[in-house]
Amino acid sequence: MSCGPVHEGPSGPVPRTPLGWLGHEGFRLFFPLGAIHAALWPLIWVLVQGLDLPMARMVPASIWHGYELLVGAYGAALIGFLTTAAPEWTDTAPLRGRPLWWLAALWGIARLVGFLGWDGIGMLGGAADLLWMGALILYLLQLSWRRKTDILLAFVFWLMLLFGAMATSRLAFALGDIDLAQQSTYMFGFGFLGVLGLALARIAVPVTNLVLDPTERSSPFRPHPGRLNLAPGLILLAMAGTLAGLNETVTGFLWIAAGAGFMDRVAEGFVGRQSFRAEILLLTGSSALAGSGLMMIGTAALGAGWSLYDGLHVALMGGLGLGVLAVYSVAGLLHANHSLPVPWQTRLAGVLLLASLVFRIGIDGVTGLAWLERSLPLASVLWAGAFLTWLAAYLPVFLRPPLGDPAPLPGDAGFATADIAVGE
């Protein structure tokens, strides 16, 4: 399989305005939107909590906060990634212009409803979220049918799980069913970790090879293809066990196994001195935090000294957050026709994100620094700083007119190994 895109038909005229350039490809529009939402939403939530403002919600604000971060910030990253990567993987023309703006409008309507926090229009926000997720599923199915390929079906499967969890969460919000709202929001987060496992497996190989050989004349890094879907498969097993109501001991070990699947991906980052390149560290760090968080969830069920919520924050805030930052940085750079390495702002953003995680979960009892315990305002500021730092470096690049065909998104070559894994 060639690493270069071979799009069907003409790519169309290059837009002449900054808004047109943003809508020229999915990553240009949705990566900045996701970064802005990721930066501002936690700050808004902390402000509301700190001022003790009334929340017109039938579920606790903490559950709503988690839902908005997952569906809002990470949802925008998902749209931008798949509308950019799927055309590369299927050698088809990408979505441009109006379809992207319609997706952005649906996503934006739901975020506005979430910001207002009014149950009276909650169904409108839920409908908008379900529409953009459904449209994304149909888009991938349409590409699969046109190209007669199954390489997108794993993503379709996980998107369907996300759709189901999202619909259940919205129903629970409307009914005021706190337990169902909490469980379905957790399931949405775990489903996103499944998508993360798929994405990392397909991105890590070509990015590592590009770091090891910038000339792209060789592929020195070739992991075993049988490990491609290990982490997502183990997450699915743990989710099924949890939803089936298995006892805590059984589900605890299932979540530990799911975490181990991500830790297996960390081993792929040991490629000599190049392991310390920011591009590699972002990918391995994402897997390490996702795996550590899932194992913390499992061991918490077995009686460990930390809570389920600490594990959730490590996996969803740390693992998913760093994974999103990695996709933003590497894919955004290469698709805007720039070469590696990533700029220094990406390294700073990663450090700020990790610092935010430390302050969010607290380390009292580990080092005795009680002043770090639950430092929510500082954690929110550091988190916002991470994504705003990325935005300051990359938005000027995205606001420049596209020049020629975009460089291939990491993941195109990665499907060469995916094909082997399914016996093609």
Automatic annotation (TrEMBL):
Signal peptide: none annotated. Keywords: Membrane, Transmembrane, Transmembrane helix. This is NnrS family protein. The chain crosses the membrane at residues 29-48, 69-87, 99-118, 130-145, 151-173, 185-205, 234-259, 280-306, 312-336, 348-372, 378-399. The keyword Cytoplasm does not apply. It comes from the Bacteria. The keyword Transmembrane helix applies. Pfam families: NnrS (PF05940).
